[in-house]
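Hi there, hope your week has been kind to you so far. Thanks so much in advance, here it is.
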Amino acid sequence: MSPVFTDPLWRIPVRLNPVEVELLRTEPLRRLHFVAHAGASAISTLQSYSRLEHTLGVLALVAHFRPQDALLRVAALLHDIGHLPLSHTVEGIGGLDHHAIGSRLLRTEPIRAVLEGHGIDAEEVAAVLDGQPLSPLTGRSGLLNLDHLDSYVRSGRAAGSLDADPAVMLARLGLADSAVSTDRETAASLVALVCAEARLHTSWDNVGPVSVVRRLASQLLDHTTLTADRLARMTDHQLWSAFDACAATRAESAMIRYEPHRLQVTVGPATGEDRSGWDFSLRKIYGSAPLVEGERIEVSAPGPAAELNALRLLPTTFHVRWN
């Protein structure tokens, strides 16, 4: 990889440090190029960008706001290395946790050796990723950090809901109290993106494919010799190939890729009259907010704050079945 790149979303030019160049040549980082950031909803939407593209976007933001903070820059590069195939889609299957996996990868080869070769302690990177000390990469609960900032804006661009030029937006952003801070107008634009992302997560486009792939992953572990640990290090393509190779998952794997229109999703669990299909619950709906001129949004921008608060009313339990 060239030691200089410009992130295409934020249009931030970044000159990579030697340790960053070397890390980007390792398998855990390269693998992220083959993992969809949006998970299984990449099947039904245009959210097809990779987890590596997001990672480089987060690095670009850190390099913009904290260019000399070498430790924070490395943490930005490594913050997602534990992600499973199709990202959050199979989180929890077989007890898998991408945070725990990432922590383990950080402390083992080849990552640890690369860090040590440049005089960086893996434990110090782990502490940053754990929020010790507090940083704009992880931030405070409920406040917008740089990781989620890139996710919301990048997703908004892919979904066609981004109504502002990211480079112009960036000029209006700052950091305060280890969180993203901005003016009222830009805060309203960011809140609109947060709400759009939440609505996407609770829509057919996400619930249907995610619920099917989670079922397939569980069946794959039940009907083959594949272990959860091996599944965790697959790429998306390898996971789909494993589905196709297993008699228990082959047919439904083809259906979700080529006939997703046959899926029906309704809000709420199955009723007594309809026991076909399966119930599905979302694990989490994200709703972090930027500070507005250094103050919490509830104080300085009650309108957007009310929009975020309304996300609590979105459904999180669904019934899914094939038609």
